[in-house]
Each structure stands twice: as C-alpha cells, then as structure tokens.
Amino acid sequence: RPVVAIVGRPNVGKSTIFNRIVGERIAIVEDIPGLTRDRIYGEGEWLNRAFSLIDTGGIAFDNEPLREQMRLQAEIAIDEADIIILLVNGRDGVTAADEDVTNILYRSKKPVVIGVNKVDNPEMHEQIYDFYRLGFGEPFPISGSHGRGIGDMLDEVFTYFPAVREDEHDPDSIHFAVIGRPNVGKSSLVNAILGEERVIVSEHPGTTRDAIDTGFVKDEQKYRIVDTAGMRKRGKVYENTEKYSVLRAQRALERANVVLVVIDGEEGIIEQDKKIAGYAHEAGRGVIIVVNKWDAVAKDDKTMNEFTEKIRKGFAFLAYAPILFVSAKTNQRIQNLLPVVHRVAENHQTRVPTHVINDVIMDAVSMNPTPTSGTKRLRINYATQVAVGPPTFVIFVNDPELMHFSYRRFLENSLREAFTFEGSPLKVLARKKS
Ligand code: GDP
What we know:
32% of the residues lie in helices and 23% in strands. It is α/β, with parallel strands linked by helices. Strands 8-9-10-7-11-12-13 form a 7-stranded mixed β-sheet, with helices on both faces. A hairpin with a 4-residue loop joins β16 and β17. The radius of gyration is 24 Å and the shape is globular. The site of guanosine-5'-diphosphate has 16 residues, from α5.
C-alpha cells in the first residue's frame, strides 16, 4: 500500500487536511481511551486505491528549535513515504521556512505535490502562482476548512502511486511484526530468531525503499518478519521519539498477520507500551506479548506470575494474547516463539461452521438471558461468521440497540470458550433482522 506523508511548517493546516483525507473513522474499540485522538497515521482511499497517510507535523521534537523540527519531519517523510504532500499557506506566499523544507525534499528523489491551503474561494486562486518557484510543478489550491480542491490534489498524488505488487501477499507465508518502544530489544529479538534458524531465504523490498522484510522457512512453514530494516539502521535523532516509534509500529502492523508486542522485563510496563499494544489490538492482528530481558530480572518462583498479573491488568484489552518470557541475549525460550506465532496465525484464520456457532450462541443465551430495555427484550435470530483475520461474527437481532457492550462481551467469551482463538481478537457485531 503506498504511503503518503504531509509535511509543512506549523499552522499551514496539516492536521485539518489529514483529517479530511482520512475521515473521521471511529475505532471499534471501547476500552482503550484516547487511542484515536492525536493520530498521525491513517488510512485513506482514492480512486479505489487504499493508501496510508502520515501527518509528520504530529511528530514533535520538544527540545529542538522549530527549524530543526521541520528538518527532522521532512526527513521522516523522505524515509517513510512514497509520495510527499508539501503543504503551504496560500495567504503567506512562499516563506523562508517553506524554502528550507523544499531544500531538504530536493535531496530525495521522492515525488512532491504542493497543496496550497487556505485558498477558501475562487478569487484567491492567483495566490498559488508564487509557489511554482518551489520547483515541484503545478501547485494545487485547496481549502481544508471548506474541504475544496483536495480531490484534484489527490488525483495528482495518485499518478505517483507505485504499480500494485503481486508478491506482497503470499498467502502461505505467516507475516509477523516485532513492535515495541525503543530499546526493549526488538532488533536483538529478530536477530535471535533468525540466528536460531540460520535459514534466511530472502529479503523482500516493501513498498518504500526502507521497508525491508526478512523471509525464512522453519519446520516447512514460511515466515516473514516485516520491516526489519527499521530495526537495523540506527542513530537518527527521531528514532527515539515516542511518536516515531508508534508510527513505525503502525506501518509494520499494516502488513502483518501476527504481532509480537515486546516489553522490557527489566523496566516493566510503562504508558508507551500500553499505547503500542493498543494499536496492535486495534489493528485486529493476532497478538503475542513477549517479555524480553528475562535474564536480567532478579526472580523467585513468584516473579513470573506477578509479572503476568501486571500485564493482564495493564493490557486488559489483550486478555486473549499469550505471554512469553524470553531473553534475546541468552536465547532463553526463543525456540518457543515461532510455534506460538504459527498457532496464533492459525487461530486468527479460524472459520467455524454456522450451525456450530448457533449451537454455542443459543447455549449461551439459555445460561444468561438476553438483556431488556423497558418491555423490549433482545432477540437473537441467528449468528454467522462473516470473515477471518480476525474472526468476525455477525449476530442478527431484533434491535441492535439492545445488544449492550457487556452482553456482547459475554457472547464473545462464550465463543472463546467453545473454540480456540488464543492470540486472536474477535469481532462480534449486531445487525438488525426481525
Ligand atoms: P530495540 O530498540 O527495541 O531494537 O532494542 P535493541 O535490540 O537495540 O536492544 C536494546 C538494548 O537492550 C541493547 O543494549 C541490547 O543489548 C539489550 N538487550 C536486548 N535484549 C536483551 C536481553 O534479552 N537481555 C538483556 N540483558 N539485554 C538485552
């Protein structure tokens, strides 16, 4: 999927344009507060092509001067994106700051499309002419506040989308990502997994130059670790910023079936871990929680249980995820990882026949009657599985409003007890059918 990044100096309207393009898509998760606020990464669609959009303006570098922040943001765009939208303010003309950003963008070979924002009415169109001199072709007048002109700009962006790649989705290969905040040991873990195998097959370039995946075979199963390049190149200032590590995680999530959420056993769980785990859950991928650096933890026979409890409390929404305690340094239990990845990938693809689902749901209903509102009672007509990856169930009911969160959770748990969905989120949706 092509990646588009928006760059530009502060207050030109990057977030407004970002929200216009991505739309106000509401997350399906109720129990992770604040996750969808403050987004810098989203999915858009234009002319039937899905693409990812990054608002680099959302990646702030608090201790850097403005000029340096903009430079870093432009570099992130160059690193991460296939196409860059340079957003400028039509009311100001070309400013020195616009020229700064432009100079950085020149150095990459990525296509750049200029959006001239705040051109709110046709009489203002001539304000775009000044921006020709930035040298990126025709500037596109847009209005974030009125939502005008964005389509024409996206038409231009679309012309730079790379051709659809066929080999991105090998259905026989399990794609997994290793995510987590900086320094939890992601690269060490990837090296440990690969070192263990010594059977690296190939490296596949992803959509952008920097996304490189590593494929290998173990026990006749093909695997692919997505975005291993992001772990190898080191030392850029922005790699240690929180927003950047979230961005990286989200990009990896997009191409994975299963994610390993890595936690530092020595340091314990911090807020940033919860955020990253929340994104893994929200993306609907299979999830495994990996507690790394277990070698460095002073422990007795209770330590593992205590840590498990902390994880269950801190990541309540990931109750379905198995937890593994490993050490990338000593290779402790590293050999257990791939079998669990394999199992979770299968659970994520589980398909249950409709009659079996209905037996389970009806049993559940007889144990715990459906909720009522006033004189009205929820009636369940029947249930069916409509998708895998993650398994998604639709329950046809007389009135979806009557399906309370807690009852839906109860039905989900009944399905979990009846089948093996370990490591996989489930979606349970109520639809009207009288
Ligand atoms: P990343 O930023 O998540 O990719 O983390 P790295 O793989 O670069 O590791 C960060 C630091 O933790 C390095 O100094 C590693 O040597 C160290 N480290 C990684 N895994 C382990 C482990 O299992 N045990 C111990 N004691 N240290 C580890």
